[in-house]
Amino acid sequence: MLRRGKSITGTIIGPNKTNVKTIKPSKTRKIIRRYHFLNQSKQKLLKLLKLEDSNNLLFDTLRSGNADFQRGCDMKRGDDVTERQLIKIHQHSMDSKLLYNMLGYVYTELADEKGLSNYQMASRMGQDVKRGGDSSKILIKWMKELDDTQEKNHDERKTMTALEIGSLSKQNKISTSGIFNPVVRIDLNNSNDQEGIIRQDFMERPIPHNDNDKFDLISCSLVLNFVPTPLERGQMCRRFKFFLKNNSNNTRYIFIVLPLPCLSNSRYITPERFHDMMLSLGYEKLRYQEAKKVCYALYQWDKNLENEETQKKRFMTKRQCRDGPKMNNFNILLSK
Ligand SMILES: C[S@@+](CC[C@H](N)C(=O)[O-])C[C@H]1O[C@@H](n2cnc3c(N)ncnc32)[C@H](O)[C@@H]1O
């Protein structure tokens, strides 16, 4: 639900006594909610205006060539009328001037580097140990369990390599447990200039040709829900396999974390449907666990399990699996 009025840049977050920036939990949730609301609004507006922004060039194009969009860009943040209109975008679907206006308003707030950096800081605060965060704790627990079931003695346990997509910290268990080395960390925006996190879009990361440049594990924690459209989420899932090693170690793991409601309360996807979709891509479920707010899943890629027929039949078109008044529309769709 939208909390009206505030920009995602929020109030200035000043350094505390230890010179480490922090945000209160209530504010953290507000910033994250606002960011997701803006992203969803952007998608709705693009759809109604029949626009695509696959290269992220639309903002600059419209800013220099569309007066209605420009007006939206120049508006004051937290404009009451626009905020109300954004809640009911579909009521204005015939008014293209207003749609462009709203799009400019939304884009400007999303493009604000300070807003994204606050969003990332809010996400990092959610990972704070005191707030029950760091989803990679579960990953490490599972890795140890898997090692035990394979009854390897200490010498046989090889260090694995990992790619962490959407990395916000070098202090998470994935980086500190010693199980993974190196951990290559990437994020769309390294707003905090943390050394050791590469600024990179996973979808643009060049596909490696030899195993040395591939990984034993890909971690994708709370990233898929950040990807704006169902098709782009599907493309991301399909892309994982190109970064997994082909060697005989039998690793090839994918660790995915999603906000629980994405799977437990969506009209279009359920945990079972998500696992089936992953299986059709060749990712077999090894572990799945639901917590109060998020769900964790561990898959292993096996090329022999890929099934294009199932992909086509079940996962390339939108299908409603259930309905209810408070359900969301989160979905993941595959394309060829
Ligand atoms: C909610 S944060 C999650 C951070 C952390 N992994 C966690 O579990 O709390 C989502 C992050 O994913 C990043 N992200 C989204 N799409 C991405 C992509 N295509 N490539 C790299 N990073 C991406 C965003 O920049 C954002 O910092």
Automatic annotation (TrEMBL):
<keyword id="KW-0489">Methyltransferase</keyword>
<dbReference type="GO" id="GO:0016433">
    <property type="term" value="F:rRNA (adenine) methyltransferase activity"/>
</dbReference>
<dbReference type="Pfam" id="PF11968">
    <property type="entry name" value="Bmt2"/>
</dbReference>
<keyword id="KW-0949">S-adenosyl-L-methionine</keyword>
<protein>
    <recommendedName>
        <fullName>25S rRNA adenine-N(1) methyltransferase</fullName>
        <ecNumber>2.1.1.-</ecNumber>
    </recommendedName>
</protein>
<dbReference type="InterPro" id="IPR029063">
    <property type="entry name" value="SAM-dependent_MTases_sf"/>
</dbReference>
<dbReference type="InterPro" id="IPR021867">
    <property type="entry name" value="Bmt2/SAMTOR"/>
</dbReference>
<keyword id="KW-0539">Nucleus</keyword>
<comment type="similarity">
    <text>Belongs to the BMT2 family.</text>
</comment>
<keyword id="KW-0808">Transferase</keyword>
<comment type="function">
    <text>S-adenosyl-L-methionine-dependent methyltransferase that specifically methylates the N(1) position of an adenine present in helix 65 in 25S rRNA.</text>
</comment>
<feature type="binding site">
    <location>
        <position position="166"/>
    </location>
    <ligand>
        <name>S-adenosyl-L-methionine</name>
    </ligand>
</feature>
<dbReference type="GO" id="GO:0005730">
    <property type="term" value="C:nucleolus"/>
</dbReference>
<feature type="binding site">
    <location>
        <position position="187"/>
    </location>
    <ligand>
        <name>S-adenosyl-L-methionine</name>
    </ligand>
</feature>
